[in-house]
Amino acid sequence: MSSKIESVSGRKTAQEHVKTLGYRFVARLGEGTFSKVYLTEYTSRDAVGVEKLACKLIDTAVCSAKFRRKFLPRELAVLLRVRHPHIIRIQAIVKCHSKIFIFMRYAELGDLLTFILAHGAIGESQSRIWGRQVGLALQYLHESGIAHRDLKCENILITTNFNVKLSDFGFARHVMRSHEVELSSTYCGSFDYASPEILKGTPYNPKASDMWAYGVLLYVMLNKSMPFKGRTKAVYELQLARKWQFRSRVRSKLSHQVKSLVTNLLEPNPIIRYTIDETLINDWFMDVPKLRALNPDEFVCLAEARSVTRACSSDVLHVQSKLRQSGSDVITTIKQVEQRDAPQFKSNLSLKTSTILLLQDDSTVNDAPPDDEERPEPADEPDDPQQQPSPDDTRSL
Ligand SMILES: Nc1ncnc2c1ncn2[C@@H]1O[C@H](COP(=O)(O)OP(=O)(O)O)[C@@H](O)[C@H]1O
Ligand SMILES: [Mg+2]
């Protein structure tokens, strides 16, 4: 990994530092447990144009010690590595005193949960397109030796071209490569998407639990409701007894292929639950000719995931050492993607130019109201426009 190190002196506030790098905060987009997400505008040094980006801001001064020491370094280490057409693109990571700024592609249509709540359940053909895109992202992660561990609608983002991007690697962790199992004993993620083995509280295979969550995700898209409701013990028993069903209003409309796929994903035994490879060659996807082959970007990324051997633990150690550096006036570049118009996915996944910026300042970034000035259209990634979903349900989850 090559990285560029340069020193910057001065007493600018965090916002001013970030502004000097070309980022301007415009509005707040969302909020998580330890983060706030903002819409920002980025003007590159060559000032070729303005790009809308989302910025996830994490203040390590106010998050839990466990999150700061364990999950945050893992999240950043994973973000340094991953690159896939169906995973949100990271443009830069900046540390400014206690604050971490993660600049990424802005998903204009927001997250999938908000979308479903606004428009209803997703029709089967659109669910298949989005389900396959998330599935390919998951296949890439699993082949890269990474489990996501927080797959849910809130972490699926939708672009203006109606493509979805997997995001939020806050609970992601490195696991062994395919065919090997490294059990997890951290019971993380969302209760609604938790597999029976997670609810049971015994060490679990995180890839298999990702597949359970993926099954819940498909169910939610198709039904606009959760397959299981209740308290932990009751839900666990329902899961083991396979006591769930598609909602009556969609049951007769859905194909037997998708019903069979979801059944094989909501399989209580993780040993025989569908893997991501078994899922992607399922009839539900294969019956549609245009979904049988990978496009060149998907192909290149999967091939690289399969071929690149990485020292993942050294990534985490690298990030941890960067996070420990406090009080220094240093900017360290770990990831900085300037060429937004350059063809993507042509090079090796290892980072050629990447960035962590360490800025000395502890001032806060305030919620800046959106301004009224006209902004240029955001540059879009070269993704194919997909068909629009057909809203078919208006009940809340
Ligand atoms: N790139 C983005 N574009 C648009 N909205 C986003 C983007 N990233 C995050 N959001 C919004 O912010 C929310 C929280 O972001 P997330 O990364 O999931 O944080 P957390 O780890 O706190 O859950 C998302 O559910 C989504 O609504
Ligand atoms: Mg999230």
From TrEMBL:
InterPro entries documented for this protein: Kinase-like_dom_sf, Prot_kinase_dom, Protein_kinase_ATP_BS, Ser/Thr_kinase_AS
Region feature Disordered, mapped onto this chain: 359-397
Keyword NAD among UniProt keywords: no
Q: Which keywords describe this protein according to UniProt?
A: ATP-binding, Kinase, Nucleotide-binding, Serine/threonine-protein kinase, Transferase
Q: List cellular component terms (GO).
A: cytoplasm
Instruction: Specify which residues bind ATP according to the UniProt entry for this protein.
Output: 56
Which residues are in the Protein kinase domain? 23-285
Q: What GO molecular function annotation could you give as one example from this UniProt entry? A: ATP binding
GO terms for biological process, alphabetical: intracellular signal transduction; microtubule cytoskeleton organization
Q: Which domain of life is it from?
A: Eukaryota
> Which protein family is named in the record?
Belongs to the protein kinase superfamily.
| Designated name of the protein | Testis-specific serine/threonine-protein kinase 6
Q: What organism is the protein native to? A: Culex quinquefasciatus (Southern house mosquito)
Q: Which gene encodes it?
A: 6039561
